[in-house]
Write a structure and sequence with these properties.
The structure is a single chain. The protein is built from 23 helices and 16 strands. The chain has about 575 residues and is α/β, with parallel strands linked by helices. Strand 4 and strand 5 form a beta hairpin. The two termini are about 35 Å apart.
């Protein structure tokens, strides 16, 4: 997979392989702190498609090296001008010390300069679950690690002052009172035999023990600092993140530090998510600029983060996003052999490699706000022009096409349940091509099913269909992509079907109770469906009907969900709903 030079977001569904990527980077590079928390494991790290005991390789390729870096790593740089390190774990090797081997260059030769490999390291920020417990000095070592890292010059004085204070405590009035009281009873017991004398002395404490007696407190500016448990999980997690990011202060002792972050959004509200990611990105970009004049180390920081948050995905350009997903099954494998074990591989798509023009890239980036970035996490997706289709399609699927009923078939139930996981997104126009390019390209789609639904627009819809299908002939042929075109517009196609008069008329009457005569004058019951659609579309164009499409769709959906009204689904929408679903048994 390909990473962005300063910040990469790995997005994708659960169990896609995002954490595996982070773990691979952790296993193949040393931690900045010098204390490893993850190792290759013969039982856990394996390839399901390989024989048991097969070696595992993690190959890291570093490019865009500065002139100074090319000089430092000159003996290791490949013919392509990049630096390649490979960590190979061989679980079948009997001698444990030989199981992990590091090689360099693409030819995998023995590393002649292993000390240089230590110039590239990582800092790991784990998924946040209980930051309060992690920062509680009595239960964890986080505060001790900060003291150890940041106070090298002051540690001796700190220990001396703390131990001197403990000595004073051992000699103060309360301590003397305790000693005197205990001594009285001890003297009565021991004096006749072997007299003993009791003392309270302080024990010389090391840094770890001294720091455990301290507690981090936090509060809003101007308020009394309080226990972390009173600060809320979100801000406690931000404090925990701050203690991890402190390790980046050591970046100037390395050529490259990988900041590996898992799910930074945990317990953070959307604005904090954006601020945090922007801060990490700024640190990486600043380090990139500074590295050009740095000596003796480059001090570069590169952030790689996993996320399930559309909010975070929407705050960066698609050039910084890599979609991680399980390998999509081939059409022939959609009904797999029950007796054959199948372990889907992880595939990645760096959106920076999607062939978009600069204008198309900016358009997609503007589109992916927090409400729409869900398309990067979707397996099955319907793209529509506007909000009306987005509002109605789910209701049409769940209430009309696959309604819940007593004695319903298993296939009907499964289709309804599957559709609940479908993402329906309006693009706010008819230029679908940039979004299709983003989702299906180079024979490696980041969705299993993509359906585009567009209006006829007096022939323009068919031209859009032809253009998309021509550009993505392979995906159209294998069923990954479908483009469906209505004859006119959504509302006109619904109106054209005779059985829909009652519910559509009621929705319009709710909108415009004094304009029902306009509705009734559009067409007659004897008109053909094509004629009815044509007349309705014309009434919308010339404003005979002032139909607020979003409001109208809301009303129709509400009637379908709260009454016994029925509605016939136009064929192109029926095909769209069926076409986005994977086959069910």
């Amino acid at each position: 997979m390909q990473f962005n030079g300063n910040l990469t977001l790995l997005v994708g569904e659960n169990d896609a392989g995002k954490s595996n990527i982070i773990d691979a980077l952790r296993a193949a590079t040393p931690p900045v702190s010098g204390r490893r928390t993850l190792w290759f494991d013969a039982d856990r790290d394996l390839n399901h498609e390989a024989k048991a005991g097969s070696p595992i390789d993690v190959q890291l390729v570093y490019d865009e090296l500065t002139e100074r870096e090319r000089g430092i790593y000159s003996a290791l740089i490949s013919d392509a001008g990049d630096l390649v390190y490979t960590a190979t774990f061989n679980p079948s090797e009997h001698a444990r010390r030989h199981r992990l081997r590091h090689t360099t260059r693409r030819e995998r030769v023995a590393d002649p300069e292993p000390e240089n490999r230590e110039r590239i390291a990582h800092v790991y920020l784990p998924p946040l679950r209980d930051a309060v417990a992690a920062l509680d000095s009595a239960r964890g070592d986080r505060l001790h690690e900060i003291f150890r890292m940041l106070t090298e010059a002051e540690q001796n004085a700190f220990r001396a002052d703390a131990n001197s204070a403990l000595k004073d405590l051992a000699e103060n009035q309360a301590s003397r009172k305790v000693v005197t009281s205990v001594q009285q009873h001890l003297t009565s017991i021991t004096e006749p035999v072997r007299h003993r004398q009791v003392h309270v002395k302080h024990r010389e404490q090391k840094l770890r023990a001294l720091v455990r007696a301290l507690r981090l407190h936090m509060a809003g500016v101007g308020l009394e600092p309080a226990d972390l448990a009173e600060s809320g999980l979100g801000y406690a997690n931000l404090l925990f993140i701050a203690t991890i990011v402190l390790e980046l202060e050591r970046a100037d002792q390395f050529d490259l530090v990988l900041l590996l972050v898992e799910e930074p959004e945990a317990h953070l509200h959307p604005q904090l998510q954006s601020v945090l990611l922007d801060y990490l990105k700024a640190r990486a970009i600043t380090s990139e600029v500074s590295s050009k004049n740095a000596t003796p180390y480059s001090g570069r920081i590169q952030v790689i983060a996993t996320t399930h948050s559309p909010q975070l995905a929407s705050t960066v350009s698609t050039e910084r996003i890599v979609v991680v997903r399980p390998e999509a099954p081939a059409p022939a494998d959609l009904e797999p052999d029950r007796n054959a074990a199948r372990h889907p591989a992880t595939v990645t798509v760096a959106l920076a490699n999607v062939k978009l023009s600069a204008a198309e890239r900016r358009k997609v980036d503007r589109y992916l706000d927090a409400t729409r970035a869900a398309l990067l996490f979707a397996r099955q997706l319907i793209l529509v022009e506007g909000v009306a289709e987005a509002l109605l399609l789910r209701t049409l699927a769940e209430r009309v096409m696959f309604p819940e009923s007593i004695g319903e078939s298993a296939a009907n139930r499964k289709k309804r349940e599957q559709f609940r996981a479908i993402t329906v997104l309006p693009i706010g126009g008819v230029d679908f091509m940039p979004y299709v390019r983003l989702l299906v390209h180079d024979n490696l789609s980041i969705v299993d099913r993509l359906v585009v639904v567009t209006d006829g627009d007096r022939g323009q819809g068919d031209e859009r269909k032809k253009s998309i299908e021509s550009a993505f002939a392979l995906q159209t042929a294998n069923g990954t992509l479908r483009v469906l075109v209505g004859a006119t517009t959504l509302e006109a196609e619904l109106y054209a079907l005779h059985g829909n008069q009652a519910i559509l008329g009621k929705a319009f009457k709710t909108q415009h109770p004094r304009s029902l005569d306009k509705w009734l004058a559009i067409a007659t019951e004897t008109d053909s469906t094509q004629e009815r659609a044509r007349k309705f579309a014309a009434a919308l164009r010339d404003k005979t009907l002032d139909l607020g499409k979003g409001d109208f769709a809301h009303l129709v959906a509400e009637l379908l969900e709260s009454s016994d009204h029925s509605l016939t689904v136009p064929q192109y929408l029926r095909e769209a709903i069926e076409g986005v679903l994977l086959p069910v048994e």
